[in-house]
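Predict structure. Chain length: 181.
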Amino acid sequence: MNLLRKPVFYGLVAEFETPEKLIAATNQAYAAGYRKMEAYTPFPVEGIDEALRFRRNRVPLLVLLGGLGGCLGGFGMQYFAAELDYPINVGGRPFNSWPAFIPVTFEMTILVAAVSAVLGMLLLNGLPQPYHPLFNVERFVAGSHDRFFLCIEATDPKFDRAATRKFLENLPAKGVYDVAP
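Prediction complete.
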């Protein structure tokens, strides 16, 4: 068995005409036991994230850790330079004059936290992703105009191609399409 082989089937996608039908279908799919699904809409739809039951966001934790790392790194860099590497006695002040270190420490905290936020958001969203299997579905082009799509992935534990297709066809979907990579 080759573990590196890509699956030959990505999942099934259902097309809906209104956001209300999409949210209702997403709730029904969740109630039926499907967990690996994603909604695609031409504009932000209020309530779709609750219907998909998104997990908590991990970006704030990454920003906190990045900010703490920047704070410690900024202070540590100045402490190393002023106290250990090149100590200079200026006016009888101590080598570790921490009030002078505050501006750089603050700026390093903000810089590293901001970079952590951007990189964390990109990585957790799986970006950049120049190709997605849904681009192979002809009707998916309407997803950027006036249609709404719900995709149930084949990696879902409950996914059975025939049963999932039948489930999606029983929803108020305009059509159900196979998604192949």
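Summary: The CA atoms of residues 32 and 167 lie 9 Å apart.
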